[in-house]
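Hello forum,

I keep getting stuck at the same step: I have a sequence, I want structure tokens, and every attempt I make locally crashes halfway through. Rather than fight my setup again tonight, could one of you with a working pipeline run this one for me? It's a single chain of 469 residues.
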Amino acid sequence: MSEETGDTRSTRQARRPNYLSGFLVLLTIGSLAFAYAQWRARQRLEVAVENRYTQAFFELVSNVDNVQVALAKSLATGSPRLRVGALSDVWKQAGDAQANLNSLPVTQELLLRTSAFLTQVGDFAFVTARKTANQQEMTEEDWTRLATMKQQARELSEGLSKMLTSAVTGDIRWLQVARQADARTASGKAGGNVVTDGLTRVDEQVQHFPTLIYDGPFSDHVEDREPAGISGPDVSPAEAVEVAKRFVPFDASGYSTTVEDEIRGKIPAYRVRLEAPKNSGRPDAVVDVSRKGGKVVLMNIARDIGQEKLDLEQAVARAREFLSESGFGEMQPTFASQVGGVATIPFVGVQQGALVYPDMIKVKVALDSGDILSFDALSYLMSHRERTIPKAKISAAEARELLSPALEVQAEPRLAVIPIETVDTPEAVCWEFRGTSFGDEFYVYINVENGREESILQLIPTSEGTLTL
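Reply #2:
Ran it on my machine without issues. Output:
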């Protein structure tokens, strides 16, 4: 009995290592299978991400090519109808180029000038299209600007095309670019590669392009005259830095600052660059501060744009809040649009209940978080002053009788101050009527002094949409 028990015990002890070895083998096989599955999943994900980046770059090149072609068409055609179509295409393609530019795994600072150029081209095309649709003659300066931007778009296209060969042959690995960008951010050291070197050359090429900024309705009224909204003594570069730090919508303490040579233009200004501390993840900013009076003329903040979470109305509310916090009085949003996850909202001043279109400020808001990305007060600072709004000699009811019978009024009339094309009287107080005519939407302006129809604006629908507020 005891002998059988000993044999059984010996057999069990002999089998136990076999069971353990089998379990370890199964565990090893399972781990390897899991690791392989994870590796395959990561490979598929990396391929998908690489393809998305490659597609964004190819579409960026195509967008810039299309901008150049559409600008050429707008210059070549003698038909106002076709010119409106070509310029609208410029605006659309420039907006799409911005969106694809923002999708690339490179820092926004690397392409700051390129991004600004695309914004300026789109804004100018939109304004010129509206002017043409309103049967207003293009000036010699308008034609010159179109021709200049066509040449600039060609230069930008050529710079991007030099990188296209590397992308086609597979020499560009966007995931590697993203990892190198992360490594440079962590170490604070710059490193060269096909992408960053190529895009740096492209952005430096854009540096010599002149700055053109257009901000929506009546934006082309700024002429070569003394700024009405600026007064006071000259400020020093150090004082300009303090103005810039106080104005940006974030805590700029700890930022390093540089002041470029004075920026020449309608309003001479210092260009203040605010650079975030390394590894802070905070955005950099550029602020132009007027030499006289120390007023902020322009602010741009560079950062990547994430998934949209805000709608246009929420963006308008955030922009209005920013203007109020920055010390501006009553401002009214006019026309807002969104492209590439960014909302652009022009605001105009309000005086004695009248909308003052010459006093215009343009604000850009990121739709992922509501952060303020851009502030442009050139028109406001050129035009702002206390005006005397005269009592209307023509009532709103009388003005309505002067409208075209084909225009169906859609809203209550409002008083508005608008710029007009005369030397002696640069502005006019008008009744503003919004209405539709055969499916198209218009704004019509009737002078409150003499009942003359001073201006008519057509709202041109786009794929991005136009919001009237």
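Residues 182-192, 208-217, 219-224, 463-469 have pLDDT under 50 and may be disordered. If your local run keeps crashing, start a new thread with the error log.
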